[in-house]
Amino acid sequence: MDLIFIQMLNGLASASSLFLVASGLSIIFGVTRVVNFAHGSFYMLGAYIAWTLVTRFGPASPLGFWGGVILAALLVGVIGVLVEVLLLRRIYHAPELFQLLATFGVVLMVQDIALAVWGPQDLLGPRAPGFRSFLTIFGNRFPTYELFLICLGPIVLGALWLLFNRTRWGTLVRAATLDREMVGALGVNQRMLFTSVFFLGACLAGLGGALQLPREAVNLHMDLSIIAEAFVVVVVGGLGSVTGAYLAAVIIGVMHAFGILIFPKITLVLVFLIMAVVLVVRPHGLMGRKPSGPQHGPAVKEPLLSPATREVKMLGAAALAVLLVAPALLGAYGVSLLTELVILTLFAASLHFIMGPGGLASFGHAAYFGLGAYGAALAAKWLAAPMLAGMVVAPIFAGIAGVIFGWFCVRLSGVYLAMLTLAFAQIAWSVAFQWVELTGGDNGILGVWPAQWASGKVVYYYLALILCTAAVLALRAVIFAPFGYALRAGRDSPVRAEAIGLNVTRINWAAFIVAAVAAGIAGGLYAYFKGSVFPTYMAIPKSVDALLMVLLGGVQTVTGPIVGAFAFVWMQDWLVRAVAEYWRLVLGAAIVVIVLAFPQGLVGSLVAWRERRGDADAAEPVAEGAR
Amino acid sequence: MSEPVVLQAEGLAKAFGGVKAVDGVSFKVEAGRLLALIGPNGAGKTTCFNMLNGQLKPDAGRVTLGGRDITGLAPREVWALGVGRTFQITATFASMTVRENVQMALLSHHGQAWRLFGRAREAHMSEANRLLEQVGMLAQAERACGVLAYGDLKRVELAVALANAPKLLLMDEPTAGMAPRERIALMELTARIAREQGIAVLFTEHDMDVVFAHADRIIVLDRGRLIADGKAEDVRANPAVQAVYLGAGSTFGAH
Questions:
Q1: Which of B100, B148, B160 sits opposite A500 (nearest CB)?
Q2: How far apart, in whole angstroms, are the C-alpha atoms of residue A545 and residue B212?
Q3: Does the beta carbon of A506 lie under 8 angstroms from any beta carbon of chain B?
Q4: What is the three-class DSSP state of A138?
Q5: Cβ–Cβ contacts within 10 Å for residue B68, how many?
Q6: Fold of the CATH domain B1-82+169-255
Q7: In angstroms, rounded to a whole number, what is the distance separating the alpha carbons of residues A77 and A92?
Q8: How much is the pLDDT for A31?
Q9: In chain B, which among 29-68 make CB contacts under 8 A with chain A?
């Protein structure tokens, strides 16, 4: 009984920080409709900056510690304002996915900046003055600092409530959350409002990070681990609801604490189950409401999707011919780079399948790639399965995950879907990371070697080329088949699709599974190509790689992801060699620039540019009274 | 007046909170006839409409299609039983051509929407062309729906709605947002197709010229209740309808 009580308190204490981050995320989303991926970075920066300030001011004095913590939160707020003014302000009207991607660019940049400033080692923070003692509860020692954190959650919740309900500024924020066009029409300075909201949200994240100082070592992984949890909290609590964020943070914090006590392996599954139950019962979260009014920014106008013209087909055949003869001209390094490229092309094409025609923007597609790789590796390790058997297991493994995760994901849309897919990927990653007995944890599974006949680099390249080309062509064929049209119909106009008898949810689910299976094939090939698998195959950066490839090439064309994969692999290879140490910084900056410069991707921009150059069809008389 | 009854609504009711949006409404539509559902804003037209096509579940009452109870079925199930519909704000697939829009509906009608292989754009060509011909859109079959003029879009929607050879067409403000001349043309087209093929048509409409020119019968809703049901001239002469539309002074302020 007493142990349960203590764990309860532990859970509540960790819920507070989570709440601070999630509420900031929620508030920013409510007003700006931007899901700020960089929110985890604000949290991490809060911790790092607080560490520096507190050690400089003197951690022993209350003023030094608390002054440092508060100043750190305010500084992070200022950083948030900089990000808003320099970047987000320019892309408020871009599609949601581009906003997510741009803020992910910020995540990458912050990671390298933090690495440069504070170094790679974990930094241990001081204890908080005034809260160094322990309280004895049921014979257990419980740190008073934890008690302080438990109280802080409701205090901040109350303060936010007062701010939103008792001040003019808060009223404006609530109004903007409901209808920002209307608030603008009433003469409110939207820019100031957005910037100030961003300041508040970033401050909260910074405060959450700074307050972790006495609890855990500051490290470079804080950003992504907290953002995934914050996404879960926000999805469970309801996007835009601060009270919901608190409720969800408490539920998840407490579940975590109990899970670790009872059966550590099942903790994440518990979190997943809670999320699943909540989303089935209340698709918009515990306290969330179905968003009213226009949810998306001005939608990107979907161009016609037509099958490849003769020239594109010739181009494709020529590219394939080049790929076929390339090994004769390249060295070992070149062949291995090409193998990777071919596999990643399938990975990108599988994501494009649901993202383009399906309009389902997955932010966690690496889960299926990684599960495919793990499927093959686990079969090799535990069942001593030969390569071909492993390559069959891979898509099945990924497909099963697609069936389960997809069932939940296709019930949501837009940013909710992006966050949920990300959360699922993070869960898959954690299982691979934590279930050491099965997966080897961080050390991965080694010795996943191809069969004797395929062990040569060139032979394996041809194997990958054949399988991936076949799979990519099959995906293409499906896009132009009735099923692909039905999928696109559901994206273009769900009401019309239902009105002609299409079950949009079920079609999307099937597409999700197809994409997972295709990604699984790529993952299986990748496992045997590398000879080993690691949890990083499912990590967030891998999902972002896939997104980058698709967006680089352009979502709206079928050829896009292929071009995007080539551009991406080439760019990454070049980056790693050219700016080895700070490649993340450069990649992050590149993402930001791409989002700002080519909102339609490379192929998409090319198509748009060709259309602008003298297509008479573009100059249509606008319908009278069209809405 | 001996045409078979296609759609029958009996005692439909729906309340939102304490507001009775639709309160005990009954009517029927016969094959080949056009029934107009009119009434001032907030009268409950759209609520009534959405209960017929399955988007809303009625609190009470029954909807039957050709004698079969369809109350509370999902929109796609209602469609499968032979109901086509058009929307107040056109809903078409913008990334497809005009013909592909119709082909999509045809594929679904023939139960082929789940096929993974085969080219969708070559499916049911002649049937699609026939439907487009019927609404006068064949010349524009290759154009993208996203670039069409609004009146043309409405006609594409009509072709899509006709793709499952419906017994009943539900048209929610079919001429909203169109120029006056186009309105008359579209409703003339609808009326002709309905009579030729024996399709029952139920439409809501704000434009009284359209209503009086084409409706065989008119029903009038006001604050959730049916206040009139009859031929154009009877409804026009009905004092209750006049009060609702022209204002009786005591019940409606001047606006």
A1: B160
A2: 61
A3: no
A4: coil
A5: 10
A6: Rossmann fold (3.40.50)
A7: 20
A8: 83
A9: 53
H/E stretch holding A244 reads helix A242-262
Token pair for B191: 């009326």
Burial class (CB in 10 A: 0-12, 13-18, 19+), A447: exposed
CA angle A142, A147, A152 (to 5 degrees): 160
Task: Examine the pLDDT at A300 and tell me if it is beyond 70.
Answer: no
C-alpha torsion sign, points A56, A57, A58, A59: negative
CB contact under 8 A, A302 and B80: no
Structure tokens of A156?
């901040």
pLDDT in tens, B212-248: 888 999 999 988 888 889 888 888 888 888 888 766 5
Name the one residue in this structure whose structure tokens are 């560490």: A51
pTM above 0.95, yes or no: no
Q: Contact A492/B94, CB-based, under 8 Å?
A: yes
Domain ranges of chain A: 2-220, 310-611
Q: What is the DSSP letter of A59?
A: T
pLDDT tens per residue, range B70-112: 998 989 999 999 999 998 888 899 889 999 999 999 999 999 9
Take residue B66 and report the two structure tokens written for it.
Answer: 């050709």
CA distances from A410 to A270, A284, A358, A511 (A): 21, 13, 10, 10
Residue with tokens 């939102």: B16
Is there a contact between A481 and B117 if contact means CB atoms under 8 Å apart?
yes
* Closest CA of chain A from B118, distance in Å: 5
In chain B, which among 230-249 make CB contacts under 8 A with chain A? none
Closest CA to A524 of A372, A342, A383, A346: A372
Q: What is the pLDDT of residues A549-569, one digit of tens each?
A: 888 787 777 788 888 888 888
Beta pairing class for B34-38 and B217-222: parallel
Task: Give the CATH class of A310-611.
Answer: mainly alpha
Pairing of strands B19-30, A532-533: unpaired
- Calpha distance B237→B224 (Å, rounded): 21
* Whether A235 contacts A117, CB under 8 Å: no
pLDDT band at B253 (very low <50, low <70, confident <90, very high): very low
User: What tokens appear for A169 in the block?
Assistant: 């500024």
Q: Report chain B residues whose CB lies below 8 A from the CB of A627.
A: 89, 177
